Amino acid sequence: MHFLYKKIYFPMTQKKKELPYLERDISWMYFNRRILQEAARPHVPLLERMAFLGIYSNNLDEFFRVRMATQNRIAECTDKSTSRESEHAKKLIKQISKQNTEYTKIFEETIRQTTEDLKKENIYLISDTEVSSEQLDFIRSYYKEKLSGSIIPIWFSAIRYFDFENDENIYLAVKVSRQQGTKQISDYAFLELPVNICGRFIRLPDHEEKSYLIYLDDVIRCCLPLVFEGLEYTDFQAYAFKFTRDAEMEIDNDLRTGTLQKISKGVKSRRRGEPLRVIYDACMPKDMLRRVLKKMDLDKLDTVIASGRYQNHKDFMKFPDCGRSNLKYPQWPPILKKELDGNDSILTKIQKKDRFIHVPFHSFDSFIRVLQEAAVNKHVQSIKITLYRLAKESKVVKALMAAARNGKKVTVVIELLARFDEASNINWSKKMQDAGVNVIFGVEGLKVHSKITHIKMKKGPDIACISTGNFHEGNARMYTDCMLMTAAPRIVKDVHSVFDFIERPYNPVKFKELLVSPNEMRNKFIALINNEIKNKKAGKDAYIKIKINHITDPFMVNKLYEASQAGVDIQLVVRGNCSLITGIEGVSENIRINGIIDRYLEHSRIFVFASGGEEKVFIGSADWMPRNLNNRIEVITPVYDPVIKKEMKHIVEDGFKDTMQGRIVDGSGKNLFREEETPFRSQEALYNHYLNENI
Q1: Of 211, 567, 586, 688, whose CB count within 10 A is highest?
Q2: What pLDDT digit, counting tens, does each position of 581-636 carry?
Q3: Which residues sit in the known binding site for ATP?
Q4: CA-to-CA distance for 229 and 225, rounded, in angstroms?
């Protein structure tokens, strides 16, 4: 089991304490392994298995671009004061590399098995060596019509390093040869695959009720004589490789540079980050591999992996379905709640009673309608909202811009440092400013990760919406998130105060209802756990039920251990990183954790505390990680409506008893299923529950 006893300094007691603690990055590898596990499960529809392979690959790319880049920076630090951290980072890199090598073998085998299963469904993914003469004619015609002029080789001899090549792309290293008298002359080039033009997979004409697909890589291999046309080359060899850059941005702190310009420059600097992982076709000749690696300027801590013929498997997320909807999950159309439908004002409905939606089971259109009505309702004075990630054609932003044009005072707090969405957020910011929206670029030194909306009314109580997820139509179709819509005065007032804090962070502010980081969220959660410990010792009801994405904060890990030691029953549903080690006698035997991987990405954060029989329920944006509790503006709200409280608890309890999609998360990385228990799938049960509720 890959964990250590981590020494944590507790300022309150001014003492250090050792506790069992699984490293965040090791636990992330276990999480991604659960996704790979799902890709290999026979009962998962075949095309969904392909998508899980793509998600696994895409996750791994981002992990190396961000987390491994951070560890590399620490490991390379030569400052004596950080020698301990540097040595720890080196050991961690070695351990992760070992895991990655092990998982890569499983990944390659899963791809092989899945493509074999596709053949049983008459879907053939063929290579350039398997094409018929008719298919070759089609491929060459396709190249001339769609790709000619989009593929321009670069000679290895012409560049010093891969300075400007994008690490999101796939490349072919090509050896071309020709006869010059009695000698064979060889040259070496590389070329970028134009995936953005035609996708990664090209569908060939069907034949005898069989569907045929070919990788774009192999389309280019078939057409190399056309790529190098007129240069007298007669022999061609091509091998795929890809690399991952350090994705941490260099942010210019020049006071003369505005926030928008700083982030724009930072996004460009990311494209030039140092390569730190290379994956290449294991069949690539050694002389060609040397040329590729020489252009990377790697060091001994970087990762070089010999892999299969094809790289960048994130493209499996867009694998063509060939018209075979029976090989995908059955459709679950989002449910438009009856109570939020109809001709009556949705704002008035919220003023009368708290409402909630749980996407993607419920339709996100209910929230869009809130904004659209607010944009035209003459009783609305102003709208304030925090935006972290935005859809490409965002209805949310369009409603806000319409509100501004209708004379409403609209304030948008947009987080420019939402990783990998910086460029999109900058683009939307400019459009909103042009429409008259007051755009605020967060708080320097703090990421604004909260998901809150405030609507000030001229008539009746003001309204607030507090969500666990982004106000993003695309996310709302794939991520499970809960949103509370309320006119409860104390909560709404606190939400307004959060916006005041964002606009004027130097002014002290106290929140009466909300748990807000970095102000008091950690202390309030600790107080809630302490109350459970006290109640357990007093013989009262004591339990903690939480659904969350990540738990890695050492102080919260320690506090949950304390609660377990006191006998508090702790049930957790944790999707991703989890540093807790369960089942240690005298430490964590009362902690049980379930990790769900299913058709929707589990994303909601819900907290339930027994509170001596007077249950307390909270929802919001924060995970229990140091970044969320210390360095971000996060918002957690109490839920008071009895019906909504019951629903939130229901979501957590269904997640905890999921045996079909849930794995035991205990720190071992085994990801075992609770197969001895009655089969239960929480996402399916919740969807059916909401369908029945809406009849």
Answers
A1: 211
A2: 999 999 999 999 999 999 999 999 999 999 999 999 999 999 999 999 999 999 99
A3: 59, 479, 575, 603
A4: 6
Active-site residue, 449 included? yes
Cα dihedral 310/312/317/321 (nearest 10): -30
- The Cα–Cα gap between 123 and 131 comes to 14
- Residues flagged as binding site: 59, 389, 419, 479, 575, 603
Give the chain's domains with CATH numbers: 4-104 (1.20.58.310), 122-319 (3.30.1840.10), 338-503 (3.30.870.10), 515-693 (3.30.870.10)
* Angstrom distance (rounded) from CA 592 to CA 22: 15
Q: Which amino acid is at 231?
A: L
Please tell me the predicted confidence (pLDDT) of residue 251: 36
pLDDT > 90: percent of the chain? 75
> What are the backbone dihedrals phi and psi of residue 121, each rounded to the nearest 5 degrees, phi first?
-100, 15
Residue type, 379: H
Cis status of the peptide bond prior to 360, with omega within 30 of 0: yes
Q: Which two tokens stand for residue 391?
A: 């859809």
Distance of alpha carbon 72 from alpha carbon 63, whole angstroms: 12
What is the overall mean pLDDT for the chain? 90
Please enumerate, by residue number, every residue annotated as part of a binding site for Mg(2+): 389, 419
Q: How far is CA 323 from CA 39, 203, 477, in A?
A: 21, 12, 21
CA–CA separation, 412 and 429 (whole Å): 9
Mean of pLDDT values over 337-341: 96
CA 516 to mean position of chain CA atoms: 23
